[in-house]
Design a protein that fits this description.
mainly alpha; about 75% helix; about 400 residues
């Protein structure tokens, strides 16, 4: 009788509940995704992560289900941190923030939102825990790339918060400043956008787009004389044609509320001398000529500069685009950081498997597990934001 009771106790103790079984299967599947990532197959890991999430959660899971799911799988990250250092987080963070646009493209907004939360929280954890000399710049790059994804999906409030966190980690991150400025600009928050652009200009004084955006913010807040002065300085530098076009349009527009059509027409004529045949300048000048009672002159101008249907993107279209070039550049830096830290992730996976008593595969020959990043130059730059007044 006693032996039967003991047998029942042992059997009960060995039983695994369905919930525990599902959690362990989920943990194992996520670990497999991380192993693919550590092997260097980032595209494969990204596909595996998205597939894993959708197979377990479906396309439209409720937020609590997503949170419970990732609370379980983040234990894998915890295990890696126990046997490795914070550098293991860099490839994992990049993986999660890169799955964001993939989920968005497929309409899985809840899963995309959760990906951004995981990426941002892990980035803060990395920045706070890492002792590597390059941790702050890398954290800033990761935040900036994520902010770009949020910006492109019009999550403007979230994007502004992420860009601000990127700047806190590295105040010389021009891409983050541009991201913050353009996001605030789109939201009509010109008083917030202007300091971001002014600070970015101190770091990249030769960048015509930054000068243009700062000048337009001045115009939007009513600082017309200062705005025109900046625009005049810009056009004298011979910037890219699209920047030149917008600058002349905006300079002409400054004088319209003052009913100084003559001055506006002269500015537009100057612009057409610099960019012959520019459609937007031509159309704007023809419209002003017509309003000034000179329809014949307007007609002649349009006849000599016919509008081309082959022009697919105007200067305004270029201005209104999100700063994709800046984000592309920052993502190249993120990719480089992932490759730099990937051997650390490989080593942590190896150590974690050994701790669990599993048979493990050694890293491929030639892969260095010990990684020491060169210390960056000492940052002595003091950010000085040009005041609005």
């Amino acid at each position: 009788m006693a032996s039967s009771a003991l047998l029942w106790i042992l059997v009960a103790a060995a039983q695994v509940t369905p919930a525990e079984s599902r959690a362990e299967a989920s943990r194992a599947a996520y670990l497999e995704v991380i192993e693919i990532l550590a092997s260097g197959d980032r595209a494969g890991a990204l596909t595996a992560l998205a597939t894993f999430e959708t197979e377990v959660l479906g396309d439209r899971p409720l937020p609590p289900k997503i949170a419970d799911f990732w609370r379980t799988n983040m234990r894998v990250v915890g295990e890696l941190l126990l046997v490795g250092d914070a550098e293991v987080l860099v490839p994992i963070i990049a993986l999660h923030h890169n799955v964001y646009p993939l989920h968005r493209a497929e309409g899985r907004s809840g899963m995309a939102r959760n990906a951004s939360v995981i990426a941002s929280e892990l980035t803060d954890m990395y920045a706070d825990r890492s002792e590597a000399p390059d941790s702050s710049p890398i954290a800033s790059q990761l935040f900036t790339s994520l902010g770009g994804y949020l910006q492109e999906s019009w999550r403007l409030t979230a994007a502004r918060d992420i860009f601000d966190r990127a700047i806190q980690r590295n105040r010389k991150n021009v891409a983050a400043l541009v991201g913050l400025g353009t996001t605030a600009e789109k939201a009509g928050s010109y008083y917030e956008a202007l300091p971001a652009f002014n600070t970015a200009m101190r770091l990249r004084p030769e960048d015509g787009e930054l000068q243009l955006r700062a000048a337009l913010c001045l115009k939007r807040i009513g600082r017309l004389e200062r705005a025109e002065s900046r625009l005049r300085e810009l056009v004298e530098q011979d910037p890219d044609p699209w920047i030149l076009s917008v600058a002349f349009q905006e300079m002409a527009g400054i004088h319209l509320p003052r009913r100084d059509a003559t001055r506006s027409l002269a500015i537009l004529e100057e612009g057409l001398e610099r960019i012959p045949g520019n459609q937007q300048l031509t159309t704007q000048r023809a419209l002003l000529l017509d309003r000034a009672g000179r329809p014949d002159a307007a007609a002649r101008l349009l006849e000599s500069n016919p509008v081309s249907s082959s022009e697919t993107e105007t200067a305004r279209d270029t201005y209104n685009r999100w700063p994709v070039e800046w984000m592309s550049s920052i993502r190249e830096e993120v990719d480089a950081a992932v490759e730099l830290k990937r051997p650390v992730l490989q080593a942590a996976l190896l150590a974690a498997a050994e701790a669990r008593g599993e048979n493990v595969k050694e890293p491929e020959p030639g892969v260095e597990v010990e990684v020491e990043a060169d210390a960056p130059e000492e940052d002595t730059f003091e950010v000085i934001v040009e005041p609005i007044d």
